């Protein structure tokens, strides 16, 4: 009996150890409490609605939405976003026009209106909230990598 | 022009047979019920009749008003499954149903005019909705969706015609503090609402219910 248990322990112990180590290392998206205990949900974060355009982190990042979109219709029947951001409404709404890529199909042919593949705005464009990030974000701007001396604080800033 | 023509015989009014309407009227006036109703009271005192009329009026008017109020409650609206499982379901979670201050707008707040004459007019129109309920015009979800555009258009037409009167029962441009609105909303209200160029519904469609297919609706083009 013992002869059988020993190999099993040899095999299982590192697995258990690795599991324990990885569990410590895993990002705790749900907080420090063990997952077996039910936690109160954090309060809903409010969207940022200051209408200030935010710099993109890289040139082809979809711009974020600086206003609330609560209750905006976005389904098969209606697209509320286009009531301001469509080309013909930008004069009256003073909203930025959707980019020309949104009028092209996947072959690059320009269409008369919004391309079907761009219809669901919130696939790429999202609102922002003041919520604290669940995990630290180590993203660095491309300029920071290529021209560190030009960034505020220079090279020592890294 | 010859003057010696015999003039056309004058109709004999006194002996003519009375016309159809007059005959019906005479028959009506001679009915025993009508004769009694038109005769002066013989046994009832003037005081009884006056006070009795007053109290009967109170009861009838009160009853009418109570019935009017009873049919002007959201609970009455959603006693029909068409309303409960479609539009009322969609209202849940919208700003007019749940919000930070707990003020609610129920169905009649937006769909029945508050002013008396218009209210009675709307109530008479609503008898068509009873007809629709009885004959099941929107008795299934599919039928409801089929008719959604025309029903929505009817509401938009009504609100565009009366300058979004139902919205203005609660929201008034005078009461708006633009400094507490976000700049985008403030600019839009200043430019379109305060100038009277547009009324509420032209921008705020589909805020309490889902929208129908908006193809061709002004302001919803995707170009």
UniProtKB/TrEMBL annotation, chain A:
Q: Where does the record say this protein resides?
A: Periplasm
Which keywords annotate this record?
Answer: Electron transport, Heme, Iron, Metal-binding, Periplasm, Signal, Transport
Keyword RNA-binding included in the entry's annotation = no
Disordered: region residues: 28-47, 139-158
- Regions of biased composition (Basic and acidic residues) lie at 139-152
Q: Where does this protein chiefly localize?
A: periplasm
Signal peptide start and end residues: 1-23
Listed under subunit, the entry gives:
Component of the periplasmic nitrate reductase NapAB complex composed of NapA and NapB.
Family stated for the protein in its record: Belongs to the NapB family.
Q: What does this protein do?
A: Electron transfer subunit of the periplasmic nitrate reductase complex NapAB. Receives electrons from the membrane-anchored tetraheme c-type NapC protein and transfers these to NapA subunit, thus allowing electron flow between membrane and periplasm. Essential for periplasmic nitrate reduction with nitrate as the terminal electron acceptor.
Q: What is this protein called?
A: Periplasmic nitrate reductase, electron transfer subunit
| Organism of derivation | Neoroseomonas terrae
